[in-house]
Amino acid sequence: MTPIQAFYILRRRFAAVVIPTPIVTPTQGDARPPVVTPTIAKGDQADMLARLRALLPNGWFSGSSPVLDTVLSGLAWALAQVYALIAYARLQTRLATATDGFLDLIAFDFFGQTLPRKSQESDPSFRKRIQAQLLIEKGTRTGLIKSLTLLTGRAPLVFEPTRGQDTGYYDTPTTMGYDVAGAYGEYDLNHQAFVIAYRPTTSGIPGIAGYDDPQGAYDVPTSSTEYTDQSMINGYLSDADIYNAIDQVKPVGTIVWTAISN
10 vs 192, which has greater pLDDT? Predict the structure, then answer.
Protein backbone atom coordinates (compact mmCIF):
# COMPACT_ATOMS: atom_id res chain seq x y z
CA MET A 1 0.00 0.00 0.00
CA THR A 2 1.37 3.38 -0.96
CA PRO A 3 1.31 6.38 1.44
CA ILE A 4 -1.29 8.07 -0.76
CA GLN A 5 -3.59 5.05 -0.57
CA ALA A 6 -3.15 4.91 3.19
CA PHE A 7 -4.00 8.59 3.49
CA TYR A 8 -7.28 8.22 1.57
CA ILE A 9 -8.24 5.17 3.64
CA LEU A 10 -7.59 7.11 6.85
CA ARG A 11 -9.54 10.10 5.51
CA ARG A 12 -12.59 7.91 4.83
CA ARG A 13 -12.37 6.37 8.28
CA PHE A 14 -11.90 9.77 9.94
CA ALA A 15 -15.25 10.88 8.52
CA ALA A 16 -16.97 8.17 10.55
CA VAL A 17 -15.25 9.06 13.84
CA VAL A 18 -17.37 11.12 16.20
CA ILE A 19 -15.44 13.34 18.60
CA PRO A 20 -17.30 14.08 21.85
CA THR A 21 -18.22 17.71 22.50
CA PRO A 22 -16.51 19.62 25.34
CA ILE A 23 -17.94 18.88 28.78
CA VAL A 24 -17.99 21.22 31.78
CA THR A 25 -17.30 19.16 34.91
CA PRO A 26 -17.96 20.84 38.28
CA THR A 27 -15.55 20.03 41.10
CA GLN A 28 -16.84 18.57 44.34
CA GLY A 29 -16.28 19.67 47.92
CA ASP A 30 -14.71 23.08 47.33
CA ALA A 31 -15.42 26.47 45.77
CA ARG A 32 -12.97 26.17 42.91
CA PRO A 33 -14.31 27.03 39.44
CA PRO A 34 -15.50 24.14 37.26
CA VAL A 35 -13.00 22.30 35.10
CA VAL A 36 -13.65 22.94 31.41
CA THR A 37 -12.52 20.39 28.87
CA PRO A 38 -10.56 22.28 26.16
CA THR A 39 -12.48 22.88 22.97
CA ILE A 40 -11.11 21.03 19.96
CA ALA A 41 -11.37 22.85 16.65
CA LYS A 42 -12.22 20.73 13.65
CA GLY A 43 -9.10 19.81 11.72
CA ASP A 44 -6.51 21.04 14.22
CA GLN A 45 -3.76 18.85 15.67
CA ALA A 46 -5.76 17.92 18.79
CA ASP A 47 -8.73 16.92 16.63
CA MET A 48 -6.57 14.76 14.36
CA LEU A 49 -4.89 13.15 17.37
CA ALA A 50 -8.29 12.27 18.84
CA ARG A 51 -9.38 10.77 15.53
CA LEU A 52 -6.21 8.68 15.27
CA ARG A 53 -6.62 7.34 18.81
CA ALA A 54 -10.27 6.52 18.07
CA LEU A 55 -9.11 4.25 15.25
CA LEU A 56 -7.02 2.08 17.59
CA PRO A 57 -8.54 -1.30 18.56
CA ASN A 58 -10.47 -1.34 21.82
CA GLY A 59 -8.32 -2.33 24.77
CA TRP A 60 -5.02 -1.25 23.23
CA PHE A 61 -2.97 1.38 25.04
CA SER A 62 -5.68 1.99 27.63
CA GLY A 63 -3.22 3.50 30.14
CA SER A 64 -0.57 6.16 29.78
CA SER A 65 1.36 5.78 26.54
CA PRO A 66 3.69 8.75 26.03
CA VAL A 67 5.64 7.11 23.20
CA LEU A 68 2.47 6.34 21.26
CA ASP A 69 1.15 9.83 21.92
CA THR A 70 4.37 11.32 20.57
CA VAL A 71 4.20 9.27 17.37
CA LEU A 72 0.50 9.99 16.85
CA SER A 73 1.01 13.70 17.57
CA GLY A 74 3.54 13.87 14.75
CA LEU A 75 1.10 12.25 12.36
CA ALA A 76 -1.70 14.49 13.64
CA TRP A 77 0.38 17.60 13.01
CA ALA A 78 0.97 16.56 9.38
CA LEU A 79 -2.72 15.79 8.86
CA ALA A 80 -3.69 19.14 10.41
CA GLN A 81 -1.41 20.91 7.95
CA VAL A 82 -3.03 19.03 5.06
CA TYR A 83 -6.48 19.95 6.35
CA ALA A 84 -5.50 23.62 6.66
CA LEU A 85 -4.14 23.57 3.11
CA ILE A 86 -7.38 22.05 1.81
CA ALA A 87 -9.40 24.74 3.63
CA TYR A 88 -7.17 27.45 2.17
CA ALA A 89 -7.43 26.00 -1.34
CA ARG A 90 -11.21 25.88 -1.04
CA LEU A 91 -11.30 29.63 -0.34
CA GLN A 92 -9.43 30.32 -3.57
CA THR A 93 -12.12 28.72 -5.75
CA ARG A 94 -14.55 31.66 -5.41
CA LEU A 95 -14.11 35.37 -6.03
CA ALA A 96 -15.99 36.20 -2.83
CA THR A 97 -13.45 34.33 -0.66
CA ALA A 98 -10.22 34.29 -2.70
CA THR A 99 -7.16 35.91 -1.10
CA ASP A 100 -3.54 36.79 -1.77
CA GLY A 101 -2.12 36.05 -5.21
CA PHE A 102 -5.12 33.94 -6.18
CA LEU A 103 -7.22 37.10 -6.27
CA ASP A 104 -4.69 38.57 -8.70
CA LEU A 105 -4.98 35.42 -10.84
CA ILE A 106 -8.77 35.83 -10.98
CA ALA A 107 -8.38 39.43 -12.13
CA PHE A 108 -5.84 38.36 -14.75
CA ASP A 109 -8.09 35.54 -16.02
CA PHE A 110 -11.00 37.92 -16.62
CA PHE A 111 -9.30 41.20 -17.51
CA GLY A 112 -5.72 40.39 -18.49
CA GLN A 113 -3.40 43.21 -17.49
CA THR A 114 -6.08 45.91 -17.60
CA LEU A 115 -7.05 45.53 -13.92
CA PRO A 116 -3.89 45.01 -11.81
CA ARG A 117 -3.74 45.28 -8.04
CA LYS A 118 -2.58 48.68 -6.85
CA SER A 119 0.47 49.06 -4.62
CA GLN A 120 -0.33 47.80 -1.09
CA GLU A 121 -4.01 47.38 -2.01
CA SER A 122 -5.90 45.12 0.37
CA ASP A 123 -7.83 42.04 -0.75
CA PRO A 124 -11.29 43.50 0.07
CA SER A 125 -10.57 46.69 -1.89
CA PHE A 126 -9.23 44.77 -4.89
CA ARG A 127 -12.18 42.35 -4.76
CA LYS A 128 -14.63 45.27 -4.95
CA ARG A 129 -12.93 46.61 -8.05
CA ILE A 130 -13.06 43.18 -9.72
CA GLN A 131 -16.74 42.75 -8.86
CA ALA A 132 -17.50 46.23 -10.18
CA GLN A 133 -16.17 45.23 -13.60
CA LEU A 134 -17.37 41.63 -13.71
CA LEU A 135 -20.77 40.73 -15.19
CA ILE A 136 -22.03 44.25 -14.63
CA GLU A 137 -24.73 45.72 -16.85
CA LYS A 138 -23.13 48.02 -19.39
CA GLY A 139 -24.32 50.70 -21.80
CA THR A 140 -27.22 51.77 -19.56
CA ARG A 141 -27.96 54.29 -16.84
CA THR A 142 -28.77 51.45 -14.44
CA GLY A 143 -25.45 49.75 -15.16
CA LEU A 144 -23.54 52.95 -14.41
CA ILE A 145 -25.33 53.41 -11.10
CA LYS A 146 -24.81 49.77 -10.09
CA SER A 147 -21.13 49.85 -11.01
CA LEU A 148 -20.38 52.98 -8.98
CA THR A 149 -22.48 51.80 -6.05
CA LEU A 150 -20.64 48.48 -5.92
CA LEU A 151 -17.27 50.19 -6.25
CA THR A 152 -17.73 52.99 -3.72
CA GLY A 153 -20.56 51.75 -1.54
CA ARG A 154 -22.49 54.97 -2.30
CA ALA A 155 -25.07 55.52 -5.05
CA PRO A 156 -24.15 58.33 -7.49
CA LEU A 157 -26.41 61.17 -8.58
CA VAL A 158 -27.15 60.94 -12.32
CA PHE A 159 -28.86 63.68 -14.35
CA GLU A 160 -29.70 63.50 -18.05
CA PRO A 161 -30.83 66.88 -19.44
CA THR A 162 -33.03 65.24 -22.10
CA ARG A 163 -34.74 62.80 -19.70
CA GLY A 164 -38.11 63.94 -18.47
CA GLN A 165 -37.90 61.91 -15.28
CA ASP A 166 -34.80 63.95 -14.32
CA THR A 167 -35.94 67.40 -15.43
CA GLY A 168 -39.54 67.09 -14.30
CA TYR A 169 -42.85 67.86 -16.07
CA TYR A 170 -45.12 70.91 -16.14
CA ASP A 171 -48.36 70.54 -14.24
CA THR A 172 -46.87 67.64 -12.29
CA PRO A 173 -46.02 69.06 -8.85
CA THR A 174 -44.26 65.94 -7.62
CA THR A 175 -41.62 66.19 -10.37
CA MET A 176 -40.75 69.89 -10.19
CA GLY A 177 -40.00 72.42 -7.47
CA TYR A 178 -37.16 74.67 -6.35
CA ASP A 179 -34.72 72.76 -4.14
CA VAL A 180 -37.12 69.81 -4.18
CA ALA A 181 -37.17 68.09 -7.56
CA GLY A 182 -36.45 68.64 -11.23
CA ALA A 183 -33.78 70.64 -13.09
CA TYR A 184 -33.38 72.61 -16.30
CA GLY A 185 -33.25 70.36 -19.37
CA GLU A 186 -31.56 70.99 -22.69
CA TYR A 187 -32.19 69.12 -25.96
CA ASP A 188 -28.85 70.35 -27.34
CA LEU A 189 -27.14 68.12 -24.77
CA ASN A 190 -28.37 64.91 -26.32
CA HIS A 191 -26.43 61.71 -25.45
CA GLN A 192 -24.85 63.45 -22.47
CA ALA A 193 -25.23 63.03 -18.73
CA PHE A 194 -24.00 64.71 -15.56
CA VAL A 195 -22.84 62.45 -12.73
CA ILE A 196 -21.85 63.21 -9.15
CA ALA A 197 -19.90 60.22 -7.88
CA TYR A 198 -19.06 59.92 -4.19
CA ARG A 199 -15.81 58.70 -2.72
CA PRO A 200 -16.18 55.75 -0.33
CA THR A 201 -16.40 56.33 3.39
CA THR A 202 -13.23 54.88 4.90
CA SER A 203 -11.98 54.19 8.42
CA GLY A 204 -8.69 55.96 7.80
CA ILE A 205 -5.39 54.38 8.86
CA PRO A 206 -5.72 52.18 11.97
CA GLY A 207 -3.41 53.11 14.84
CA ILE A 208 -2.40 56.48 13.36
CA ALA A 209 -3.59 59.71 14.96
CA GLY A 210 -5.11 62.45 12.83
CA TYR A 211 -5.11 66.23 13.16
CA ASP A 212 -6.21 67.62 16.54
CA ASP A 213 -5.74 64.19 18.08
CA PRO A 214 -3.77 64.34 21.38
CA GLN A 215 -2.34 60.87 20.70
CA GLY A 216 -0.04 62.38 18.08
CA ALA A 217 2.96 64.56 18.97
CA TYR A 218 6.49 65.21 17.72
CA ASP A 219 9.43 63.64 19.60
CA VAL A 220 7.16 61.70 21.95
CA PRO A 221 8.01 57.96 22.19
CA THR A 222 4.36 56.96 22.63
CA SER A 223 3.12 59.12 19.77
CA SER A 224 1.00 57.43 17.11
CA THR A 225 1.94 59.95 14.42
CA GLU A 226 3.87 58.95 11.32
CA TYR A 227 4.28 59.86 7.67
CA THR A 228 1.72 58.11 5.52
CA ASP A 229 0.39 58.01 2.00
CA GLN A 230 -3.03 57.32 0.49
CA SER A 231 -2.27 53.65 -0.18
CA MET A 232 -2.29 53.03 3.61
CA ILE A 233 -5.92 54.11 3.99
CA ASN A 234 -8.34 51.24 4.57
CA GLY A 235 -10.57 50.91 1.52
CA TYR A 236 -8.74 53.66 -0.35
CA LEU A 237 -10.10 54.26 -3.84
CA SER A 238 -8.54 56.78 -6.18
CA ASP A 239 -10.51 59.17 -8.36
CA ALA A 240 -8.93 57.47 -11.37
CA ASP A 241 -10.65 54.21 -10.34
CA ILE A 242 -14.01 55.97 -10.35
CA TYR A 243 -13.40 57.56 -13.76
CA ASN A 244 -12.29 54.20 -15.14
CA ALA A 245 -15.43 52.47 -13.81
CA ILE A 246 -17.62 55.05 -15.58
CA ASP A 247 -15.65 54.69 -18.80
CA GLN A 248 -16.07 50.91 -18.70
CA VAL A 249 -19.88 51.00 -18.52
CA LYS A 250 -20.99 54.14 -20.36
CA PRO A 251 -22.39 53.75 -23.90
CA VAL A 252 -20.01 54.39 -26.79
CA GLY A 253 -20.39 57.87 -28.28
CA THR A 254 -21.79 59.47 -25.13
CA ILE A 255 -20.32 62.08 -22.80
CA VAL A 256 -20.55 61.70 -19.03
CA TRP A 257 -19.60 64.90 -17.24
CA THR A 258 -18.36 63.73 -13.84
CA ALA A 259 -17.79 65.44 -10.52
CA ILE A 260 -16.38 63.49 -7.57
CA SER A 261 -17.40 64.49 -4.08
CA ASN A 262 -16.84 63.36 -0.51
Answer: 192
> What are the backbone angles phi and psi of residue 257, rounded to the nearest 5°?
-75, 120
Quote the CA–CA distance of 136 and 71 in Å, as a whole number.
54
Residue 191 is assigned to a structural domain of this protein? yes
Q: What is the mean pLDDT of residues 133-152?
A: 87
Exposed e or buried b per residue across 65-92, where buried means at least 16 C-beta atoms within 10 angstroms of its C-beta: eeeeeeebeeebeebbeebeeeeeeeeb
Side-chain half-sphere exposure of 31, counting CA atoms within 13 A = 0
For the sheet with 157-159, list strands across it.
157-159, 192-198, 255-261
The DSSP line for 215-242 is T--TT-TT-------GGGSTT---HHHH
CA atoms within 13 A of residue 23's CA, in its CB half-sphere: 5
Q: Which domain range does residue 194 map to? A: 138-207+231-262
pTM above 0.70, yes or no: no
* DSSP class of 18: P
